What does this fold into?
Amino acid sequence: MDMTTAGDTGLLETLQHEVAVFARRAEQTRLGGVGQVRNSMDRAAYLLLNRLDKEGPMGVKALAASMGIDSSTVTRQVAPLVDTGLVKRTSHPEDGRAVVLQLSPRGLARLDEVRTSRQSLMAELTQEWTPQEREQFCTLLTRFNTALSARQAGQTAPSGEAAPGS
It folds into this structure.
């Protein structure tokens, strides 16, 4: 079903192009931040550490579900974080056979360092923007990401609600 009108075609062409350019530039720079912290944490590590910080300790399956990815991917991505001491594996308090992943104090410090650096980069890139423009961009980008997540999950997310894994 074509949901565009003739007038939308040019705008949608520009939008898809700008999204493609954004994706390429974001990957090239890894939107890592500024200073020595720049490019020092890959996207997967950042997203995993951030999720553990926001939601607390959890098992691999729960972490995978909350991020909208499969357990084998989480297991593969979390291994180097455990090896470097950013994430700790502990036994589940109620079921000693189950493993729980949690952010270590070192992991939290590293995450805070990267967040601060990335926030500095965002401030630098949008220094000419008004507070309203920053807010509008955040609102629209969140909405766009929610729609992408919902499409990937095969569902339509209600406007303004975050889809799983966002």
Observations:
- The first helix runs from residue 6 to 29.
- The radius of gyration is 19 Å.
